[in-house]
Amino acid sequence: MSEYNEVCLKTFLKDQGKLFDEPVAGTLEEAEAFLEDCMAVVVDSLAEVREYFEEEGVDVDGLDPEDLEEASEVFALPDGRYLIVEG
User: Fold this and answer.
1) Which of 5, 28, 48, 65 is within CB 3.0–4.6 Å of 43 for a Cys-Cys bond?
2) Looking at the predicted structure, is the pLDDT value of residue 47 above 90?
3) Per-residue pLDDT tens digits for 62-79
4) For the chain, what is the radius of gyration of the CA atoms?
5) What is the model's pLDDT at position 3?
6) Residue 65: C-alpha distances to residues 2, 37, 45 (Å)
7) What's the CA gap between 40 and 4, in Å, rounded?
8) Is the pTM of this model over 0.85?
9) Mode of pairing for the β-strands spanning 41-43 and 74-76
């Protein structure tokens, strides 16, 4: 697998409804293909989530860490990392 390990893929499958109205993947393979297609990224901290959004031109000034973590594009992974998926 690519940078999307099994934990990442399972988390996306379980929580994809927070970003999409209908499921975009039903298996680990479909999840991996989808994340690769949309160039989702995995980062190690909320500081890196903030940095990613700033680099993408998203205004995150004034957002506290909890707001960043609850953004629909951000999936908190059980190992403390974050998956960012642009829908």
Assistant:
1) 48
2) yes
3) 999 999 999 999 999 999
4) 12
5) 81
6) 28, 27, 10
7) 9
8) yes
9) unpaired
